[in-house]
Amino acid sequence: METYAITVARGFGSGGKEVASKIAKELGIHCYENRILTLASQLSGLDEQLFSEVNEKMRGKKFSGLLKGLPKTGNPNPAAVDFVSDERLFEFQKEIIENLVQSESCVIVGKCADWVLKDYDNVISVYIEAPRSFCVKRIMEKMNVSEETAHASIEKTDKYRADYYSHYTGGNYWTNPVNYDLTLNSERVGIENCVRVIKEYIQIKFPSL
Question: Which SUPFAM superfamilies match (predicted)?
């Protein structure tokens, strides 16, 4: 096995993104989230023939290099919008994720990556969640918002993620534990220990690493 990937799905405010960033840093690999959507958005404006040519050139190290050169932002804030499907954009995103996992070891946050890569043997999928009170407190502190706004943001964002996942996976539910290798409660386990558990599981699943 030359490369491996860790996909991280997370409830809003659970600290899942922080876990993903920390695990990537400790493993010395890249963590991808919004840059995937940024590149997919750029590519979705190309006609099919031109995209095929660009896609072929992107494979391997050139591909991951292109992603790393993109800004980390670029997707709408889910708390502010309703989910609207974009099949073409998702297909580009799916292809980017599949190319990425074959070109380098990495952590991929969200984007239905666990489902996209469910048939790949070199993938570990993780879901991070926590009780509402824990998530609300984190959002209030990190975003400097009221408790009411924090609750509303969680409801809106998690609904967006659930609708997104259900649509692109054919009705599967985003928080279903059987979708993942590991489901961790970040309040009970702790952010740092979530990272530790994932690292230990990597050794269990990929003992040759």
Answer: P-loop containing nucleoside triphosphate hydrolases
Hey, CA dihedral for 113, 70, 11, 172, is it positive or negative? negative
Query: Residue 11's domain is classified under what CATH number?
Result: 3.40.50.300
- The string of DSSP letters for 118-156 reads TT-TTEEEEEEE--HHHHHHHHHHHHT--HHHHHHHHHH
Number of domains comprising the chain: 1
pTM: 0.85
Q: Quick check: 58 and 66 in contact, CB under 8 A? A: yes
Q: Where in the sequence is the domain holding 48, given as residue range(s)?
A: 5-205
Question: pLDDT digit of tens for each residue in the chain (209 aa)?
Answer: 689 999 999 999 999 999 999 999 999 999 998 888 777 777 766 555 555 555 555 555 555 565 665 555 545 566 667 777 778 888 888 988 998 888 889 999 999 999 999 999 999 999 999 999 999 999 999 999 999 999 999 999 999 999 999 999 998 999 999 999 999 999 999 999 999 999 999 999 999 87
